[in-house]
User: Which sequence fits this backbone?
């Protein structure tokens, strides 16, 4: 993404908030690893909803069907 004149702060969460705002985002889809360090309060403060993206549960480990795994399931209820 190139946005002339855009300023993104250096902290992990701050940078993600700034990039999301630069694209007029209202949602941030975050994986399990990111949830460990992400400061959700900073997203809440500017009205960005953090959506946890966790692999769907099933009878087998998710990596068995990883080729069918998509981030879209997290934002499409009932999919």
Assistant:
């Amino acid at each position: 993404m190139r946005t002339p004149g855009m300023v993104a702060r250096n902290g992990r969460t701050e940078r993600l908030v700034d990039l999301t705002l630069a694209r007029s985002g209202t949602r941030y889809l975050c994986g399990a690893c990111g949830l460990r360090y992400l400061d959700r309060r900073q997203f809440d403060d500017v009205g960005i909803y953090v959506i946890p993206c966790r692999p769907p549960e099933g009878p087998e480990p998710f990596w068995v069907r990883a080729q069918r795994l998509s981030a879209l399931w997290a934002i499409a209820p009932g999919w």
